[in-house]
Each structure stands twice: as structure tokens, then as C-alpha cells.
């Protein structure tokens, strides 16, 4: 499957190279400007950064396509200018691969980060809500809000003048004000998503806390007259005690993290790191506590049936792993996405391209 995808990508790149070469060999710069320019307009919308890269490598001046402030080559002076900017459109459509590609072109990135367009700079564009299909590349309104904040902060880094952060658009709004207005509904949805998720997991974590706390004082086999546990010298008993302690501590941590989410102020900035961080720690702790609880249960059962049913250990291990596996299947994808978006490699990074600055 992966090999087929690579073959298709290579064929597509070869086709693009051939088309670009044919257009340039015709020597008609007006046609090259129009054809390659329209190709870039479509490519940036759908995030086909390979096509954009090939077009620029073939015909470097096409990077200024649609920019009527820059003087076109002599061959295309009479072309009708088209209001389009590659960097701005990459931000508008939230296409990080195209953004990264343009970011590597140092001169272009400095130019577009400080330019104006109808009293809107690049930060105003980043403050607007992303298209619906780009919002849904991540799961849940909270992570969508996080992705939008990441975009806003990344563009903010490129702004060369602090005054642009306070610049007003046609509606009299700064980029930050525009961001709050555009993401008002997403913020509400993110709050609700976080509350619902945290509430559900809090019930499970609190139940595990109750069980593991009680199990610590209700030892299998009971105690001797001097208070020492009956199975103290058994390795299985030590496994029970350690597992129960781990389950208690991790489930308590999980409860605290989820309560921290429920009592949060839910400010916009909290969705960037604070809330995803708490949810990640809470989920990891809950997964550990569930696993440790199952181990403690199976070890306690094995202790009580040790002299009657000697073969009980293997079936118990298999049986107790079932709920842990189900929990992993249901919630591990969310955990992976949380870790990736919060602690993983940023979506804004240098790409391995042929582009020369």
C-alpha cells in the first residue's frame, strides 16, 4: 500500500515536471504566467505543496503571481493582475505544508509578513476562523482551538513590527480582537468538549480510587493475630500490594487533573497548552491505574485459589487484559493526538525540499 502511494507520488511529480517544462519551452511567458499561476491558486487551496514547489523551480518569478505591486517581467507586462498572495493564501486555507515551503524563501516571507491588503495584514488573516474542512483535521473542538492558536502565534512570530499587532482592519479590530470574535463559537464548543470528556473520565477514575483504597485495607487472606498479612512472604502478594498502590496513586492523579480541567477558567490561551496538558496527564494516569487495578485483581484472585486451581494464573492474565485493551482501542487514538499536538514536532518546520533561498 505504502509502496503504491510512493509510486503514484513519483508519477505525479514527473507529470508536473513534464507539464512545466513544456510550458516554459514554448517561450510564451504570458501563457506560462497564466497556466502556472492558476495551478498555484488551486494547489494552495488543497495543500499540494509539491506542485507549488515544482512550478517555482521551473519558473521562479511565478512566486509573485497576483502581486500587482511588483513589476512583472517585460513579457507579461500587459497581463491582467490577479489579487493573490501565496503566503497569505496558505494562512487563509491553513495549509501548513505550503506555509512551510514559503517560509523557507526568506525574502518572500519577510515581504509578506509586513505587507498590507485592504488594511489587513497577515496576522488579521491568521485571526480568522479556518475553513471547516481544515478545522476537522484534528479531533474535538478543544484541539481545533489549539491548532488555531498555534497558527496565530506562528504568524505573530513573523511580524517584523510590533505596531502591526495593534493595527486596525476595516471593522476597527486588531488581530487579537478579530481572533476572539471569529473563534467565539469554537471556544464555547471547546469548553463543552473539555467538560464532557473530563466529567466522563472523572467518574471512572474516582471509582478506581475508591476500590483501590478499600483493597489496601482488605488484604487477600486476611491478617494474623499480630496484624501481619497471611501472604506477606508470597511474591504474588507483593505484586498485589505494589499494583494496588500504583493504581491508587495514578487514579488520584487522574482525578486531580480532570478536576483541574472542570474548574478551569477556559481562557483562549488555556487551550494552547494548559488544558491539553492536563487532559494528557489525566488520560495517561487513568490508563496506568486501570492496568494496575487489573493486575492487582488477578494477583489477589491467584493468591486465594493458589492451592485449589493451580492453572488459574494464565487465564487470569488473559482475562484482565481485555478491559485494558478495550480502553486502549477506544481512547488511545485521542491520547496519541493530544501528545502529538501538544508535545510533538510542530506543524511549522523546515521541509526537505529542493528550494533554494
TrEMBL record:
The keyword Transmembrane applies. GO terms for cellular component: membrane. Residues 192-302 form the PGG domain. The chain crosses the membrane at residues 198-217, 237-262, 283-305, 311-336. It holds the Pfam family PGG. Keywords: Membrane, Transmembrane, Transmembrane helix. This is PGG domain-containing protein. It comes from Ambrosia artemisiifolia (Common ragweed). The lineage of its organism: Eukaryota, Viridiplantae, Streptophyta, Embryophyta, Tracheophyta.
Amino acid at each position: 500500500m505504502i509502496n503504491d502511494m510512493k509510486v503514484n507520488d513519483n508519477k505525479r511529480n514527473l507529470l508536473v515536471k513534464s507539464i512545466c517544462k513544456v510550458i516554459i519551452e514554448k517561450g510564451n511567458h504570458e501563457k506560462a504566467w497564466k497556466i502556472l499561476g492558476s495551478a498555484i491558486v488551486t494547489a494552495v487551496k488543497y495543500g499540494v505543496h509539491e506542485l507549488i514547489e515544482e512550478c517555482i523551480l521551473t519558473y521562479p518569478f511565478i512566486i509573485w503571481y497576483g502581486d500587482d505591486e511588483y513589476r512583472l517581467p517585460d513579457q507579461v507586462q500587459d497581463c491582467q493582475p490577479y489579487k493573490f498572495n501565496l503566503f497569505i493564501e496558505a494562512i487563509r486555507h491553513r495549509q501548513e505544508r505550503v506555509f512551510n515551503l514559503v517560509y523557507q524563501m526568506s525574502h518572500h516571507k519577510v515581504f509578506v509578513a509586513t505587507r498590507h491588503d485592504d488594511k489587513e495584514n497577515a496576522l488579521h488573516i491568521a485571526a480568522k476562523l479556518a475553513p471547516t474542512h481544515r478545522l476537522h483535521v484534528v479531533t474535538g473542538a478543544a484541539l481545533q482551538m489549539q491548532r488555531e492558536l498555534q497558527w496565530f502565534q506562528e504568524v505573530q512570530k513573523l511580524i517584523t513590527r510590533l505596531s502591526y499587532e495593534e493595527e486596525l482592519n476595516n471593522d476597527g479590530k486588531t488581530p487579537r480582537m478579530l481572533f476572539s470574535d471569529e473563534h467565539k463559537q469554537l471556544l464555547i464548543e471547546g469548553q463543552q468538549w473539555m467538560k464532557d470528556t473530563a466529567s466522563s473520565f472523572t467518574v471512572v477514575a474516582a471509582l478506581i480510587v475508591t476500590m483501590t483504597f478499600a483493597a489496601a485495607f482488605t488484604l487477600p487472606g486476611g491478617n494474623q493475630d499480630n496484624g501481619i498479612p497471611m501472604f506477606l512472604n508470597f511474591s504474588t502478594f507483593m505484586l498485589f500490594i505494589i499494583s494496588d498502590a500504583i493504581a491508587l496513586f495514578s487514579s488520584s492523579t487522574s482525578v486531580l487533573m480532570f478536576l483541574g480541567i472542570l474548574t478551569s477558567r477556559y481562557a483562549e490561551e488555556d487551550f494552547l497548552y494548559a488544558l491539553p496538558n492536563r487532559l494528557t496527564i489525566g488520560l495517561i494516569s487513568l490508563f496506568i491505574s486501570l492496568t494496575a487495578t487489573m493486575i492487582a485483581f488477578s494477583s489477589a484472585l491467584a493468591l486465594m485459589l493458589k492451592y485449589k486451581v493451580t492453572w488459574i494464573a494464565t487465564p487470569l492474565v488473559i482475562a484482565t487484559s481485555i478491559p485494558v485493551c478495550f480502553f486502549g482501542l477506544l481512547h488511545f487514538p485521542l491520547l496519541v493526538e493530544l501528545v502529538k499536538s501538544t508535545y510533538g514536532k510542530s506543524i511549522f518546520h523546515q521541509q526537505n525540499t529542493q528550494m533554494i533561498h
